[in-house]
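Renewal narrative, Specific Aim 1. Our central claim is that a sequence can be written position by position from structural information alone. The example that follows is taken directly from our test logs and has not been curated for this report. It begins with the structure tokens describing the chain, in the order in which they were read.
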């Protein structure tokens, strides 16, 4: 480890206006020994200076062990009409105000704040120097929020020596209140997606914090209805139920709707599915990296002479298969809320049982018997269900199932389903 230190602060009264600090352009200093990889800082970081007086700023830093090189330090004043800086870091106070004096070398730079005063500040007690505010430090300097969430910012007032000043309030302001607002107490609240800066100001000295407002993370998506049956030309509005990691419903979320086969069913940006041609396809709702799908079955409208005829056995069978496929996909997702949407008749006891089962299931497929039993307004379907588990002891099992489905105006709903050993 190489440690390089270049001196301390000196106050040098200026006798006339012809000191080393004359001029307004950045100046080149004498080459100083600096180890490779040095990170520069200016010492001191802040200082008070009377008009007509001077102060010497120096650089200091540390670096990794390596070949020592010669480097040039470039000094620059942000306002030469207030104070100039020479090639040796000598700052001359010319007029009342605040300037930033920057030292740069080999791609590194550091800044000191210099305040030039017309007369010495009065002291409360003779011989005690008044402490002057030169910087406002806002913490945290950056934050990430979601719309509606809040974050408390704190402002620390610092003097020329970098020490905290007691007392005094700051004025808080947001550069873009459409992204985030800030209260008089420094509480920032996200109002829209984007990035903005929050400022804290006292006596024309300002500090900043950067705030980024991002969307609420989505944990799950469930669609209603869970299975759709349309005739060519009909439409249905799909609803996406979005929840966060706590299970709370998330509103005002942009959903992308995608049809697996637009030749069968098209879908609008707001989730309106329209039947185009007979067949079966899926509609997917996607938010970021989360997505879920619903099965849609489309049949041709009946001829005028057959308008009173019920759906054919084949069409009913397709509808039953679509409902059971949606149930299987919900089980595979491991999302209990999605399973509730696919299985509207699920009891609380079944929900607890599925809560234990879902993490273990990798795949669930159904083979539905051709014959369906009609019982009142319900349909009874039987067949075989094939489970594939993630547990090595019983990787796969096949059960016989019996499912009861009820028909609503728009779709079939799974009222109950039971499994038993064959």
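The sequence written for that structure reads:
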């Amino acid at each position: 480890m190489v440690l390089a230190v270049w001196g301390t602060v000196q106050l040098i009264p200026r006798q006339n206006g012809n000191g080393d600090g004359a001029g307004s352009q950045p100046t080149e200093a004498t080459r100083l020994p600096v180890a490779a990889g040095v990170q520069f800082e200016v010492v001191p970081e802040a200082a008070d200076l009377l008009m007509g007086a001077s102060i010497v700023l120096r650089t200091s830093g540390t670096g990794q062990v390596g070949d020592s090189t010669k480097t040039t330090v470039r000094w620059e004043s942000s306002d030469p009409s207030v104070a100039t800086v020479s090639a040796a870091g000598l700052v001359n106070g010319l007029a009342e105000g605040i300037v930033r004096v920057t030292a740069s070398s080999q791609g590194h730079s550091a800044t000191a704040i210099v305040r030039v005063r017309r007369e010495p500040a009065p002291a409360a007690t003779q011989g005690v120097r008044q402490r002057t505010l030169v910087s406002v430090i806002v913490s945290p300097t950056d934050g990430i929020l979601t719309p509606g969430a809040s974050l408390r910012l704190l402002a620390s007032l610092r003097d020329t020596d970098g020490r905290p000043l007691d007392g005094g309030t700051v004025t808080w302001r947001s550069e873009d209140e459409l992204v985030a607002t800030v209260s008089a107490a420094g509480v920032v609240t996200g109002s829209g997606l984007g990035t903005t800066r929050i400022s804290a100001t006292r006596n024309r000295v300002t500090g900043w914090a950067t705030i980024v407002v991002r969307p609420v993370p989505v944990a799950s998506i469930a669609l209603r209805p869970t299975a759709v049956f349309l005739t060519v030309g009909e439409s249905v509005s799909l609803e996406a139920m979005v929840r966060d990691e706590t299970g709370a419903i998330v509103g005002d979320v942009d959903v992308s709707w995608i049809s697996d086969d637009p030749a069968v069913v098209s879908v609008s940006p707001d989730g309106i599915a329209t039947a185009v041609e007979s067949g079966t396809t899926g509609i997917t709702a996607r938010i970021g990296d989360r997505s879920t799908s619903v099965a849609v079955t489309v049949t041709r409208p009946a001829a005028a002479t057959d308008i009173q005829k019920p759906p054919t056995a084949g069409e009913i069978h397709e509808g039953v298969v679509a409902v059971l496929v949606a149930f299987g996909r919900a089980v595979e997702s491991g999302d209990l809320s999605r399973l509730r949407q696919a299985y509207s008749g699920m009891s609380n006891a079944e929900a607890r049982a599925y809560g234990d089962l879902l993490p273990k299931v990798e795949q669930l497929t159904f083979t539905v018997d051709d014959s369906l039993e009609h019982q009142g307004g319900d349909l009874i379907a039987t067949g075989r269900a094939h489970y594939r588990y993630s547990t090595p002891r019983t990787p796969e099992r096949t059960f016989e199932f019996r499912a009861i489905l009820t028909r609503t105006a728009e779709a079939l709903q799974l009222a109950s389903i039971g499994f038993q050993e064959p």
